[in-house]
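[step 3/7] fold_predict: job queued, chain A
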Amino acid sequence: MVKKVLVRMKEEDLLYEEKLEILSGNVCKSIFPISIIKERDNISGYYDTSGFRKLSSFQELSAENTLTVLELLANAMEECKDYLIFPEEYILNLDTVYIDRYFSTVKFTYIPDARKVSVKKKILYFICELKKIASENGRMYLDVLYQLFDTDNIYALKIKLFISELKREVIKNQIF
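[step 4/7] structure written:
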């Protein structure tokens, strides 16, 4: 089943313009490639999200899956930086982040964020959003991660290592 996400754009407010080559060329594997269609005065972008499921469509994620989403998202955000696509530039929420059915790959739709919110605030917001679909144990781990992000200014590598440790704990103790 083909799934497409439509994004309406305005010619004078085309925040995609500087990133269009990267976004349409499927260069950064963490972002769905966009197809731009210009019709008269309308500009639209389409993201083909086939094979992936929007996080907002989940009812409840286990603690392990919740931590996996964060771990994969951190990796995806790091990959995007390699292509000069920084988290401050795009919207990060349950409607823009997708995961495959094996919980092995996270991708997102690049929707420009004119507000330019800091990475720390975006991650804190995303953790709060993720709590809406996490199991009770998943929410407990998200609370720990929220406190860590909120109090410390630590590097992404340390965060990824901490998430990996939490995942090992979940798997070892079979916490769902």
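[step 5/7] annotate
Helices lie at 20-24, 63-82, 119-131, 136-151, 156-172.
The chain has five helices and six strands.
exit 0
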